[in-house]
Structure formats: structure tokens, C-alpha cells
Amino acid sequence: MKKIISLLSVFAILTTAVFAEGTQDAAAYPTKSINLIVPFSAGGGTDAVARALAKSAEKYLGQSIVVLNKTGGSGAVGMTAGATSTPDGYTVTMITREIVSLPLMGLAQITPDDFDLIRLANMDPALLCVKEDSPYENIQQLVEAARADDGGIRFASTAKPNFYILALENNQGISFNQIPFNGAAEAIPSVIGGHTDFTIAGPGELIAQIEGKQLRPLAIMAPERIKALPDVPTFKEEGYDVVSGTWRGLAVPKGTPEAIKTKLEDAFAKAIADPEFVSFMENAKLGIYDLSSEDFREYINSDTAVITDIVSKL
Amino acid sequence: MFHLLMQGFQSVFTIQIFPLLVLGVAGGIIIGSLPGLTATMGVAILLPFTFGMSPTAALVMLVGIYIGAIYGGSIAAILLRTPGTPAAAATVNDGNALVRDGKAGVALSMSAIASFTGGLVSTIMLITLSPLLAKFALRFSAPEYFMLAIFGLTIIASISSNNIVKGFIGGFFGLFLATIGMDPVTGFPRFTFGNIQMLNGLSIIPVLIGLFAVAEALIQLEDILKKQESSSKVTNRKLVSFRDVLKVSPTMVKSAFMGTLIGCIPGAGADIAAFISYNEAKRSSKTPGKFGSGHLPGIAAPEAGNNGVTGGALVPLLTLGVPGDAVAAILLGALIIQGIAPGPMLFEKNPEIVYGLFSSMLIGNILMLVIGLTCIRFFSRIVDIPKKLIVPMILILSVVGSFAINNNLFDVFVTLVFGVIGYFLVKAEIPQSPIVLALILGPMAESNLRKSILMYEGSWSFLYTRPITIAFIVLSVFSLVTSMRMKKSSPSPADG
């Protein structure tokens, strides 16, 4: 009898402990520090957005956020780790456009459906730049030159495949001579050095060279002109229906409890609106694009359609 | 300029900033000396701590780590044959040969002095010549990178002149490893076996740690099991003599100069600079046969060369707003987070930051020399630690280090697999350095050859129409011919 009682009491303690933990998870969350997986290396654009956002969100979550750079496979390694982590709200992943493009190209086993979305934070439209003393005065001249000399104009590509240039090529039925570089850091000097004719990257990556009069922007693939570069026309204004850019948002593994997701979304929405974060993004010429979890899902769906179309023509 | 530099010194010699520089340099030396922890990682790890600091304080500390870590890499390479960074791989042979001869103090002090010379010359060039250096860097495009890589690969003949065939076996193995991952032009996955971990190819550092550190630990483990005691002599803590330093000073300055030039080309870093400097020192030496067996220029050249990169790598950052190497990329991120856009406007908009950076590099190099020389007594004791303790320490550091690079367990497996491969390579007397060199240069050669062909629309004329390309072709042929001649004239030394 004594044995049974002690056994029962152990069982009781264990079950209450389990249930206590269960209820605690939802109501008291977060009770410990949260990991934020960044699928690209420290010092890059994604890392900068993530760290600034983490710093800002700590205030609203009341716990510290630890940024973990898990790199490899063009972002596939970090995002796969994030999607397959325990859905308890303690692992948040910074997802990027690669979550859409990699699976479509057969380069990753996970898709956006493996995540529950929290919030979209940033969108950077693609900016096209030529060398300061380039003969091309505007985007029409560049496009017409490409039409006249098929595959003769050299484009310094920052990634392979390059969805920005493919969007323009498919839209206009033209082709450029794509020279693939490892990121903007290598593509930019090749344009400034006159070895290639133009490049396309985020405004934040090109602003220093534009201000230093080494590069000249021709047009931006944004729906409307951006605040950082008010004089640069959009492709739409110039008569080309091309809108493209890269984006970064937050997500948790599928199956995370609803209450935790709501808490996270509330905190990150406040973090994105925080003046400190806003001024950081303005300084770094990174675009804030705040979408709720539902709108974020829709945004991903429309981007999937765009990229599926481009990939099918590769 | 002089006036601004003085202001820079004043801003560094303050109670808030100077301790950070000392901390950065000392921390950098420790980070660099541990296998697996590199300058890039040290700077990346400490980056978040700088967010709350002033821009100058943040840069000063990160630059201190950078300078310290590149020197620190040589300490483990010399004492334990386990290069802490790829840039120290060229220092292993001559450095460790001296240690086995009981001259750890000489080897370590030579490395500290050479690193100091490299860093100092490079910083002075950065301060005085950066617009000129930027022009030089901008002339580099795919064809130049391709021929630079080919020239680099000819060094395999010179670093393995004891047995060129075995060196080439290693080199081709390295080139094969370099083809793993996505095709640089089409993005098609090669030899990845459907594993996403291998899409970007093998990371160089896990392979390096495996080939050197783990393999060395396995060999020592074998000695322990066979109860063989090492034959190394009692460690002598005497430093390198002033006369010897004077003798190698032309080599150091020449290497520092080459390191700066290589550093200012985006995409070529300390590792390539170290090997090229070693090669040049050996080529121009009157006694090339002594290299590899504890010859002082064999330490001075690569160490001056790899620290020479530190100043050069900041040239594109300050003049073009693009990083010259992986560490400069993180410095760029640090500046952006501070709300400062690096690039050509920095000199006009924030001269105090630029000159604060310059003066902290000058002072940082002096600190590195002082700390390096005073700590030799402690460092050289590592050699006296019993193997039974040092072997597990190397293994643990290797595993932790390879995991920490990308927080990725796959890299640990890569390290362990290459540890076993490295063990058998040592048994077969196939040198490891050619593998590392080929793995660094293979992707550079391949992607730039294909970029060149794309740029010239299928024509190979880039090989003979661009002056720098032609210069590298001449250098490559020259390098091959001299190493073949060296082989003929000097019968291979017994130790290597």
C-alpha cells in the first residue's frame, strides 16, 4: 500500500508538472530567452535587419533574443533548421525570398508551408545602376541597347539565378550577358572598374557608391518611388511593368500554439514601429514593409506565382 | 592629413577607447591561436557587443581583434602544427621544425616581429596610398583573378619541392574537392548527393582543421598508444637575434608589400597572401633548399604577408564601400549598424572615424608586438604539456571550433572525416598544404575563368590582351621553372 501511494504521488507530481508546463507555455510565454535563426552570415543585410529587429523586440517581449547565424546552402540550411525546430515559440526564423525560390528550383526540401508566419518586416526593391560616366542616360536607352545587341550588354549579377534581371528579360523579351558574381561586394567593383555595364542590387548596398559619384541609378523595381532615392524613377513610370525585390520576415515552425504566435506578432509589430528601429532602417537605406501574418501569407503566395513563372522559363 | 591623424591618436588614447584596443588585440591573439576560431569569427562574435558603443570605439575593438587574430593563427601553427587560420598554414613547416629543434622562442618571436612589420607597412600604405591602391584593385576583373589563381596554384610545386609528384596528388585532390557544390555559373549541384549541406561546397575551415589539427592529434595519439616519447629537444625560450631580424627584413618588407596589394583586391585574402609571400621568398632565396626545415624567412615571409593584408583589405572598404575580405565585410556591417555608410564619402562625412581607424591600426600593431613578445614565455610552455593532455584538448577545440563557424553540425563531420584523411596523407607523406591551397584557389580559378569567357563572349583573347593577365602568365611560368630547377640543383633534404 505504501508503495502504491508513493507511486501515485510521484505520478501526480509528474502530471501536474507536465500540465503546469503546458499552461505556462501559453500564458507566461516567454519565460526564457528566444533564439532568432538568421540563415545568412553576420555582417550582411539580413543579419543587420535581424539584429536591429531583435534589439527592438526585446523591449516588448521582456526576454533577450539571441541571434544565431546558421549559414549554408544559400539560406536553405538555416531555414530548414528553423522549420524543423520545436514549435514552442522559442525558435524564431528570419525567412527571406529564398524560402520561395529554393524549393521551386529543387534546392531545398522545405517550403513556406512548413512555417507559421509572424510578420513581414522589410522589403528592398531592386535598384539598377550603371557606372557614373556610362553612355546610358536612362533605362530606355539600356533596354533598347540590349534589344539591338542581343546578349551583348554585360550584367554583373549578384546571385544565380538572378530573379531581377529575369523579370526584366521576360517582360521585354530581351537578354543580357549575365556574369555571375558572389554578391554585391564583388559585382559593384566590376561595374565601377568598367568590366561590366550595370548591376542590380538593394538600395542599401549601392547608396555609398551613388553618393560617392561612382555609380548612377537608372531605375528602381518598386511599385512607387522610394524615400531614400526620390529622384530615381520606377520601372513602371518608364513603361516597363517590372516590380521585384527581396524581402525578410519572421516565422515559427508550423504547429506553434496560437496564443504564442499572437504574442510574438504583437511584439514584433511594435518592434517594427519602434522609432529606434525605424531610424536604423532609414540610416541603412533598408525599406520597412510591415505586413500582418495574414497579409504576409498572401504576399508569399503572389511572390511564389512570380518566381514559378520565372523558373519555368529558365 | 597629419593633423587629422594626430586627432585620431588623441581619440584612441582615451580611457574609454584604449582599453578596448588592448582587449581587442589580446582577445584576437587568443581567438586566432585556437584551431577553428578565425579572425572572421572573432570579429563576428564580438560584433553585437559593439552595438552600444560609439562608432570609433566599435571599429577600434573590431580592428584590434582582426590584427591580433591573424598573428595569433601562427602560434598554434608553430607550436602544435595546427594552424588556427588558413592564413597560417604556410607557416607550419618552418615554424614547427624550429620548435622540434627546441627553438620555440625563436620561431614565435620571428612570427610576432614579421606580423608587426606586415601590419605596419600595410597600414602606412593604406593611409598614404589608398586612392592609388583602389585604382589598382579596380583593374582586376575576372581574367586577372583567374590568372592570379593559376599563379597561386603553381606555388604547389614550390611548397612540395621535396616530392613534387606527391604535392601534385594533394593539389589535384584539393581541386577535386573544390568542384563540390553548385556550379558557379548555372547553379547546378555537383557531387552533393542531394544533400543541401553541400550545396555551397565544403567550407575551407572544417577541412583545414581536419587535415591539420585532427590528423596531428591522431598521430600523437598513435605515439601515446605505442608509448613513443617525442624526440623534441628541451624548449629554449631564447628569442630571435637582432642580426637575424635584420637579415630577413628585406623579405618581411617585400612580403608586407605583396600582402597589401593582394589585400586590396576584393576576394583575395590573407591565406593567398601568405602562400604567395612564402613562394616569393623561396624563389628569390640563395638557399631555397633550407625552406621547410626551420628556415627563418619561411616564417617571416608568410607572417608578414598575411598581416600585410589587414591594411590592404580596408582599401576597397574606404574607397569603394565594398569589403576586401570576409573580416572587412563584417566591419562594413558594423558601420552600417552604427548608421554610417562606408565608402568614398566617409573621408568627407566622418573623417574622425577614418583617422581613428588608421591610428588604432598603427597602435594596434605595436600592441600586438608587445603582447606577442611578452607572452612567448607562456605560449612556449604549451610544448611542455604532456601529450596525454594536449591531444584531447586539440580534439575538443577542433570539434567546438568547426561547429561554431556556422553553428552547423555537418561541419563537425567534415572535420572528423578530413582528420582521418589527413592521418593517412601524413602516413603516405603527401603534404596537406597543397590541398588547402587548391581548395582556396580552385573555386576562384573556375568561376573567374568562366566569367572571363562569358565577358569575352566565348573568346580566349583575355589571356593576351590584358597587361596584368600577361604579367601573371609570365610569373606562373617563371614560378614553375624555378621550382623545377630548385628540385634538380638541390637534392631533397631529409626533413620536411
Gist of the model:
The complex is a heterodimer of chains A (314) and B (496). By secondary structure, chain A is an alpha/beta fold. Chain A is 45% helix and 20% strand.
User: How would you characterize the largest beta sheet of chain B?
Assistant: 2 strands, antiparallel
CATH topology of the largest domain in chain A: D-Maltodextrin-Binding Protein, domain 2
CATH class of the largest domain in chain A: Alpha Beta
Poorly predicted runs of 5 or more residues of chain A? 17-23
Structure overview:
The complex is a heterodimer of chains A (314) and B (496). The N and C termini of chain A lie far apart (75 Å). Chain A is 45% helix and 20% strand. Chain A contains 11 helices and 11 strands. Chain A is of the alpha/beta class and 314 residues long. Chain A folds into 2 domains: 34-124 and 245-312, Bordetella uptake gene, domain 1 (D-Maltodextrin-Binding Protein, domain 2); 127-220, D-Maltodextrin-Binding Protein, domain 2. The longest helix of chain A has 26 residues, at 2-27. The radius of gyration of chain A is 23 Å and the shape is elongated. A 6-stranded mixed sheet of chain A has the order 2-1-3-10-4-11, with helices on both faces. Chain B is mainly α. Chain B has one domain (2-489). In chain B, 71% of the residues lie in helices and 1% in strands. A two-stranded antiparallel ribbon of chain B has the order 1-2. In chain B, helix 7 packs antiparallel against helix 8, helix 9 runs antiparallel to helix 18 (387-406) and helix 10 packs across helix 11 (270-284). The longest helix of chain B is centred in the first third of the chain and has 35 residues, at 104-138. Classes of the chains: A alpha/beta (314), B mainly alpha (496). Chains A and B meet through helix 2, strand 2, helix 3, strand 7 and helix 7 of A and helix 14 and helix 20 of B.
